[in-house]
């Protein structure tokens, strides 16, 4: 049988074979084309688009005065892997749409899947929307929004209704009037200005700060925009009610109630409370009870795990803990407008000051470490020193006009430790344009790092306590060594600090000046913003030592390492018999401070 040659194949069969091959080629071309376009679209929208978004969430550097030690503590704590997300339905009057403008594109696109993963991880942080507000230059509140918790009235206003119970010895009702400023002071003797002066109690910062917050120009009802979250709990008033004669259950009740309430709020889940802050117009030792002994002092608010995440602003902070920050004691001056401040500053510049130095205070015979006795002795024997002795009963120390008149007539004002590190008198003296003389760095330099320059020689004189205790130094001779021209420069610096050391009247508004409230709020915002940046970048300071908190507060921006310091001897913690840290001295200081409040009334 003969085989068929190729030429003998029927023409219809050849046509069928040719059609089949052509169909296969066409399908192959279509698949290749589709794959090409898919690859092109993936590269454009996923890789390049992802880089644009990554760049859009890069944050602009904020105006941060200090990298506080509390930031470093917070960095050591784990960040929730599944952060709580808020709904964004509430529209605030200040809320402005936030554009996500692309900036510089990343050049490294070698690993698009890793880039996409990093983007998703960043977007998972629930505070990203708040951080992006900084980028919106048309929003004057960008990066400055504050969300205020709407606490039940038992945490604040109800305490004011029971104002007679806020102090064992003092009827606080008159001091809580006028938005916490107290009754107006008449300018009978010409010591004050005609307006803006009040008989303000030194422990009313709780209500003063909360009332100032009500007029803050960047409040928001949308917590997802907030740079920080304020808790209007009157912590100082709460503990003041129960310091004497109450068991620890009563002293701790409101604090435990507060943290329980906060931790149930969705806002808490964003950062576990690390973006929350509150204010207490008392010294930190009133909130740091270490034991369950009924005889131990104060409550344990600042040792509660939840409270350790929050920032607490107090009139005296602990040098060894990182969750509290010092803010100024209130003075008698609460300006309603910028002009009130400018007029007062000019008046302080032009006063004739006949005394080289002065001191207002009482001895502490029960405290063997106190140098007040030696200071009083030096004042008494000096012809250029002025002494205003304070004691129980009638005293000129209880008269704001007597105190301010003496400060206004002095070049230097001596500010030794009170019952604890700090005293209100330091701020009264600076308000009078008097250069403060400190004897312990914990009285100002490590306390008020948000409000005072780190270079303390610009505005003050430092004489170590031991020099006075061992009678190695004559205060008069030490101050006379400062050239008159230098004294003038220092006094001008003190006067320039006045706006940031006073609390303005919350019923009006300063136009351009920033008062103690403004400085404090901005510092909290900077602290939280820095912490959020560190969380995004995964930065953790594993070498942070909380006991050195006072050292971290003195670091310049960008510095992170601390070492030996000339002030180490001032802050060596007392030890008990078993070698552990003792709270006896701190508790005793708080107790004595409370007892001696009678001197100031």
TrEMBL record:
Note one Pfam family from the annotation: Exostosin_GT47
Cellular location of this protein? Golgi apparatus membrane
List keywords of the entry alphabetically: Glycosyltransferase, Golgi apparatus, Membrane, Signal-anchor, Transferase, Transmembrane, Transmembrane helix
Q: Which GO terms describe its cellular component?
A: Golgi membrane
Q: What name does the UniProt record give this protein?
A: Xyloglucan galactosyltransferase KATAMARI1
For bias type Basic and acidic residues, the affected ranges are 564-578
Tell me which family the UniProt entry assigns to this protein. Answer: Belongs to the glycosyltransferase 47 family.
Q: Name one GO molecular function term.
A: glycosyltransferase activity
Segments passing through the bilayer: 26-48
Cell membrane: present as a keyword of the record? no
Q: Where is this region: Disordered?
A: 564-601
- What is its membrane topology? Single-pass type II membrane protein
Q: Does the keyword Transferase apply?
A: yes
Q: Which InterPro entries match?
A: Exostosin (IPR004263), Exostosin_GT47 (IPR040911)
Which residue numbers delimit the Exostosin GT47 domain?
141-478
User: This protein's superkingdom?
Assistant: Eukaryota
- Low complexity compositional bias: what residue ranges? 579-593
